[in-house]
Design brief:
alpha+beta, Outer membrane efflux proteins (OEP), 3 domains, four-stranded antiparallel β-sheet, 11 helices, 4 strands
């Protein structure tokens, strides 16, 4: 009855595992379907969710955690007894072998004391079945050392998972807004083409009416050609940005995508530099991982020192010897042993290696902390630069719009030339592109600050 219950439990667990895998797969399929033309447009949160499921880096972290769990199970197994089964076949006429095997088989008789038979026995066959149990009672705390290091390894794997997820989140966000920037630049370029085409038509009409010279028409046509070149370049930028976006999602570069979002005006609050550095040293997963590596090295030093302690083991043997597959005799042995290494030439070297590894891990942790401080300062300054450039660009676009309006009015009144109009249009188009680039850098700059401080755990602050 117990056997049936166990099988039922195993079947239930297997079905649950299949169901969970099916649900996860369905989730990925639904997200992938949303990314197709005609499906729901990808918002930034949905894109990040898809990336965290399909990006190869996040899948690799799952394997890393499984590897760490397996190492813990292996380390814990060192405390359990080992059971070995053996079956051996031996045939020979060695006097000691024959004498002992007869005793093991319980076939030793008075006539076996015959000296000629003792010295020159007939060949004997011995089948020996054995069960051996070995259990460590005290293994110099080596199992405890391995378990502790394996547990620290699992914590390192968790921190690595957190680090990779933040990096994937950042790359997805940067690619998402990179694609939005390319699409917005395309819209500005298309508007510039339409405006240039209107200038060409207006100039041609004026030339035909005799109110303008041919040079005005030629200047307008040059402006149109430049606008068309810029539009062609923006088409290529969109393809490149879409490939980068698909790469961040872990999809094929040619996967068609529709995204939903805007590079609108937004405000991000940023702490002072010292506070950002403090937050980074507190939250950065890679620094935590380096600290765990240093702790693991310290545990290794302790484990190497514990080799000076004695080792206590228990053993038990059960065996059955027979001259055929039916008849035979059984025996057993139970005992314990205490082992103390008086001289081990490699022990001091292992301790020295462990100490060197601990010092190296501590130095790497300190170096990483210094690098993190630099990354925070760099990210903060890039964000501040993008913020100030955005302010200047927004003022410029207002001025450029007003300048174009005045120039067009003056041109219609015959007070200026087409060259001034074209220059004003070019200035406005350039100002709009500068605003878009600055706003993209502003968004990405803030994300970079959050990544450098180890706090890019959510993209909701970026959502409109």
């Amino acid at each position: 009855m117990k056997r049936i219950d166990l099988n039922q439990k195993l079947r239930a667990r297997f079905l649950a595992w299949l169901l969970s895998g099916f649900v996860a797969a369905q989730g990925v399929i639904v997200l992938a379907q949303d990314a197709k033309p005609g499906g729901e447009a990808l918002t930034l949160p949905l894109a990040v969710e898809l990336a965290l499921r399909t990006n190869p880096l996040t899948r690799a972290t799952v394997s890393g955690r499984e590897l760490a769990d397996a190492r813990i199970a292996e380390a814990r197994a060192g405390r359990l007894p080992q059971v070995q089964l053996s079956e051996s076949f031996t045939n020979g006429n060695n006097p000691v072998f024959v004498f002992g095997s007869l005793l093991e088989q319980s076939r030793f008789t008075q006539q076996n004391f015959n000296l000629p038979l003792l010295n020159n026995p007939d060949p004997l066959t011995n089948f020996r079945f054995g069960v051996t149990v070995k259990a460590p009672l005290f293994d110099q705390w080596q199992s405890a050392t391995r378990i502790k290091r394996a547990q620290l390894g699992r914590q390192q794997a968790d921190e690595q998972t957190s680090l990779v997820e933040q990096q994937v989140r950042f790359e997805t966000l940067r690619a998402f807004y990179g694609l939005l920037l390319a699409q917005a630049k395309k819209e500005v370029s298309d508007e510039a083409v339409k405006l240039a085409e209107a200038d060409v038509k207006s100039s041609r009409d004026r030339v035909e009416a005799g109110t303008a010279v041919v040079s005005d028409l030629l200047a307008a046509e040059v402006q149109l050609a430049e606008a068309l070149q810029q539009a062609i370049q923006t088409d290529g930028d969109i393809i490149t940005a879409q490939a980068a976006f698909n790469t961040a999602l872990g999809l094929s570069v040619n996967t068609p995508q529709r995204i939903q979002g805007d590079l609108i005006e937004k405000k991000f609050d940023l702490a002072e530099q010292e506070e950002l550095i403090r937050l980074a040293l507190e939250h950065r997963p890679d620094l935590k991982r380096a600290g765990l590596a240093a702790n693991s090295s310290d545990v290794l030093v302790t484990g190497a020192r514990n080799e000076y302690l004695p080792r206590v083991d228990m053993f038990a043997n059960f065996g059955a010897s027979r001259n055929n597959f039916v008849n035979g005799s059984s025996d057993y042995t139970v005992g314990a042993s205490v082992t103390f290494n008086l001289f081990d030439a490699g022990r001091n070297a292992r301790i020295a290696q462990a100490r060197a590894a601990a010092n190296l891990a501590a130095s790497e942790q300190q170096h990483l902390a210094n690098q993190i401080r630099l990354e925070v300062v760099r990210a903060q300054q890039q964000f501040v630069s993008a913020r100030e450039r955005l302010k200047v660009a927004e003022r410029i676009i207002a001025q450029a719009s007003e300048a174009l309006r005045i120039t067009q009015d003056r041109y219609q009144a015959g007070l200026t030339t087409i060259t001034e109009v074209l220059r004003a249009e070019t200035t406005l188009t350039r100002a709009r592109l500068i605003v878009l680039s600055a706003r993209h850098d502003f968004y990405v700059g803030y994300a970079s600050v959050m990544l450098s401080t180890g706090r890019l755990t959510d993209v909701q602050p970026f959502v409109s």
